[in-house]
Amino acid sequence: MKTKLCLSVLLLVGFVVSITVIQSAAAEDPREKMGLAALWTLDKNTVQGNDVEDVFGKNTGTITGKPKQIDGFRSEALDFDGAVDLIRMTEDIFFPSVTMEAIIKPTLGTRNPIYDKYNYGIQLLDNNNVGIWIRADTANAAKHWPSAYTPFPADGEWHHVVGVVENKKSVRIYLDGVLKQTTPAPDPISMAYGAAQKPTIAYTQHLGGIWYAGAIDEVAIFEGALSDDEVKRLHTLALAVEPVGKLAVTWGVLKTQN
User: Fold this and answer.
1) CB 76 within 8 A of CB 70
2) Please, what is the Cα angle at 33 between 95 and 224, to 5 degrees?
3) Could you give the CA distance from residue 117 to residue 44 in angstroms, rounded to a whole number?
4) 150 and 177 Cβ atoms separated by less than 8 Å
5) Are 248 and 29 in contact (CB under 8 A)?
6) Torsions phi, psi for 208 (to 5 deg)
7) What CATH number is given for 33-239 in this structure?
8) Which of 67, 96, 238, 254 has CB 3.0 to 4.6 Å from 78, enough for a Cys bridge?
9) Each residue's pLDDT tens digit, 54-105
């Protein structure tokens, strides 16, 4: 009798463990393996008052202004007025090699900073080119601003933008999963140049302050320079009808710039 009871208990435990493993595997987000460090989905349930949740890490954003909650590319997004609205993070994020991702529907014809760390970022220029730039750590002023840009579609639709900084090698801009431009960047990002600045969405402090006009959805930061295939994978995930899964692991400590 005891033997049968023990066997039944073992089978039950094994069943529970199997179900747990299956659920964990299903819940894992593929972006975790790519070095995901922060993710602001901008969904309605992640925006509480002026706080915007980082659903992967612990880098809460603080809203200035009153960006409107709208239907996004996935669930909800925020629509920024180009004059006051912005999000500023409470913690710094700095990686020598970094990848920035966002899905955007901007108002064309103006400069629109998407994600900005002051010494690097992704943005749309007033000539409707979208791209990535860094402030390079070099004494040569002519090489201070390596950048890569590509024309942004004028179709009024959502588009997936990824900017990649590969330390001491290059900056790359991708549009809808396709590599559009690569520019050599042999000098690293200048840490000192952005030492006092926290990352922002929809705003840059350059030139006295510039605000983004239009909608932004699903902003993500990755540690490291993602490859062409990884960026294509990000685009495939972005196009998924349903979210790829609840993030199973939280990286609680972001590397900060001292």
Assistant:
1) yes
2) 20
3) 25
4) no
5) yes
6) 80, 5
7) 2.60.120.200
8) 67
9) 999 989 999 999 999 999 998 999 999 999 999 999 999 999 999 999 999 9
Single out the residue of 134, 140, 56, 144 nearest to residue 99, CA to CA.
134
Across 90-106, b (16+ Cβ under 10 Å) vs e yields ebbbbbebbbbbbbbbb
Calculate ∠ Cα 184-98-26, nearest 5°.
135
CA 98 to chain centre: 10
Q: How many CA atoms lie within 13 A of 183 on its CB side?
A: 20
pTM for the whole structure:
0.84
Q: How many CA atoms lie within 13 A of 49 on its CB side?
A: 3
